[in-house]
Amino acid sequence: MGFFTDYPCSDARKFLLLWCCLSVLAVASLGSKTRHFKWQVEYLYWSPDGVENVVMGINGRFPGPTIRAKVGDTVSVGLTNKLQTEGVVIHWHGIRQFGTPWADGTASISQCVINPGENSVYRFKVDKAGTFFYHGHYGMQRSAGLYGSLIVDVAEGKKEPFHYDGEFSLLLSDWWHKDVHQQEVDLTSKPFRWIGEPQTLLINGRGQYNCSLAARSGNSSLSTPCTLKGSEQYAPQILHVRPNKTYRLRVASTTALASLNLAIGNHSMIVVEADGNYLQPFSTTDMDIYSGETYSVLFTTNQDPSKNYWISASVRGREPKTPQVLTILNYSPTSASKLPPSPPPVSPRWDDYDHSKSFTNKVLALMGSPKPPSNYHRRISLLNTQNTINGYTRWAINNVSLSLPTSPYLGSIKFGLNNAFDHKNPPDNFSSLYEITKPPVNPNSTYGNGVYMLDFNTTIDVILQNANALKANVSEIHPWHLHGHDFWVLGYGEGKFSTKDEAKFNLKNPPLRNTAVIFPYGWTALRFVANNPGAWAFHCHIEPHLHMGMGVVFAEGVHHVGRIPNEALACGMTGKMLMNNNRN
Ligand SMILES: O=C1O[C@H]([C@@H](O)CO)C(O)=C1O
């Protein structure tokens, strides 16, 4: 049915209405443009923490360049793969890819990898202001350093719902000295070799491995003071501020493993945005941030301007074997080389989960944000367990450990290639008798590449259920990230989820996010509307965990997807089909 046919009105009125609509569209698109980027992805020698290593960089830099665009813009990234022998893809984390699901940058899900020497263009619209980032999504290329910031400003003439005088971006990551290919082999070897904790945490790709910035100022008598000129690749990026101003700090975590706690010495922060969605502002002295999450916080430079202050990030949720990473908040006109007189902020104990939960529970949507539908059509309960398959250590979801096919789901679903993957839906549930506080009694699980086929435009509830890992008394944090959507976080709870817990769901002001954590032995309830045609990854954002199978794939409305560029599908069965020119 046409747009106007519902309204009984004359042709003249229809014309007027059409003219009005077109003018509104024209005004809305005024000022929006295509932002062009040309990237070469290659391995580089780099010293992210003072120890020379090989990183995966872009245009000769690590981290990659920042993309900055305005709501309504089209981002166009022409990528050349200069890696000698490896394919590559880039995922635009938090961008929902409405109408361009083939640009989501997930190997085997939305596209074929871009082969060495090949060029490919990612083109997509940014439709929402906020703090985002991008990263590799093939093997463990994010751990290798393939990442950068992506910031979307409000459209011309629009305002953020808060004021600030200046802004900084902090992209947080963790770094291993062991080569990523070797880490991949470690994780897929029999017996399993765990990659261990990172050597260094990085802020904007900079950290200090064998020296401490704080050694001279505080009680870190055990470490050597850093001797930095400031031009080194690992010299911290200092935040220069003026007194009595308000700054916006855009924080994104692209860590491979570490959950982090961020603090600014002597300054409190007001949290205003998470994953590109505005929050009901709240004040905090320190904030937890899990891999895959982004936040904006505001802080006011209301402290003694003759001093500088530490900004620190430390490991949470896993016994920390990695020193905190530091940088300096430098008040003008104080010299940037003057170290803060007091030691860096002390982060909460790594296993103080009450502290983490209290922070997480304060994250609520700004009044007036979109509300979730009050009912769901389908509930999918996903049990997270560590398992073994034929002696290999894996993570499994409802006893299925994800193993990706060679043909990208998006193409094989659209073209009905029935042999490209297992067409049976993976289980929507797990046994009600499963004891989440104990290691799996039968740890044997199976590989699977099935997809949860979601009815288009239906409301889906996902209950993420955490459980004990293989070792007794161990349950870990897992931040789950959904592609192609934001979801509402309806609640967090302890122990095994039961239908009684539904009564506690927050349907009033749940935050919209694309990443949500499950706490040890707990559950997290999410709701989203399956309204974005495509095939979308939903997975633990801990890179080694995804590599070990900790993810699922959701697909919805794929028959609505427009013409997928050939280059996205030129591999596996979809490749063969295209070569035979047998396209529907
Ligand atoms: O996946 C993991 O494996 C190890 C440990 O469970 C076994 O070594 C660990 O800490 C993980 O997060």
TrEMBL record:
The protein's name in its UniProt record: L-ascorbate oxidase
Subunit field text: Dimer.
Positions of the Plastocyanin-like domain: 41-153, 168-333, 437-557
GO cellular component, one term: extracellular region
Main subcellular localisation: secreted
Subcellular location: Secreted
Alphabetical list of Pfam families matching this protein: Cu-oxidase (PF00394), Cu-oxidase_2 (PF07731), Cu-oxidase_3 (PF07732)
Keyword annotations from UniProtKB, A to Z: Copper, Disulfide bond, Glycoprotein, Metal-binding, Oxidoreductase, Repeat, Secreted
Keyword Transmembrane helix assigned: no
CDD domains: CuRO_3_AAO
Catalytic activity: 4 L-ascorbate + O2 = 4 monodehydro-L-ascorbate radical + 2 H2O
EC code(s) of this entry: 1.10.3.3
Family: Belongs to the multicopper oxidase family.
Cofactor(s) recorded in Swiss-Prot or TrEMBL: Cu cation
Annotated coiled-coil segments of the chain: none
EC primary class: oxidoreductase
GO biological process, one term: negative regulation of defense response to virus
GO MF, any single term: L-ascorbate oxidase activity
PANTHER family: FI03373P-RELATED, MULTI-COPPER OXIDASE
